[in-house]
Write a structure and sequence with these properties.
single chain; 282 residues; mainly alpha
Length: 282
Amino acid sequence: MQLRDRTAPLAVLGSVVSVQVGQAIGKGLLDAAGPLGVATVRLTLAAALTALLWRPALPRTWRELRPALALGTAIAGMNVSYLAMARLPLGVAMTLQLLGPIAVAVGAARRPRELAWAGLAAVSAALFADAASITGASAAGLAYGLVSAAAMALFLVLSARAAAGDGGALLTPAMVWAAVLFLPLGVLESGGRLLQPSVLATGSVVAALSAVVPYALTIAALRRLPLRVVSILQSLEPVAAGLAGLVILGEELSAAQWLAIVGITAASVGATRSAYPARDRS
């Protein structure tokens, strides 16, 4: 790999940190706008921001439109995580969503070592969402978390394909479609509360941090790193979510979760190092 490829893991790390800080801020909006309302504001403003940044040409044929609709549907599905966050601690909700990237990493593994890193990430993620956090948890919250996990797996696979072309041109119509899917749900749940200045102002920050920046960074990283490595690096999301929940929301971490952070970090470092030949690390 070329030297410039060394920045790709930093792009994934930036994506992980950005999205979880944004999610923590977004969770703070749940009382004001509701989970569907927060997702609607986030996606609508993110669609506007991506359109301003990339100004792509509109898809002209079904062949051009189809991948954008698929990616947008996956993005909308990922936003079901707000329904999970309304019922579960942020770290647990994001750990459930992480099952999607882990499944992609396992499916894309080609060597025992790659499978081992994915396994370590999976075990550490399970430890993070320890039994004490899951016991008595809302069944609906767990179900929403699993839906967002499946959507995130689809997002990574589709983003890898988008990375081969003009990812920015595909991301904008995808974000618009995701916003269209959520808009009637958000309006039904929250109505005029979506237009409150405080909701729009905070929603703009959430849209930038948890949608526009991380999605663009993920697509950029997938141009330089294998899908399996990006998927394992995404396992840092519950770490970032737990820390963001601790700092921003005051949700404390258990000793088991701190141990899981060590395991997830080790898996991410190991997967990243295995992506580069030894001669490229000298």
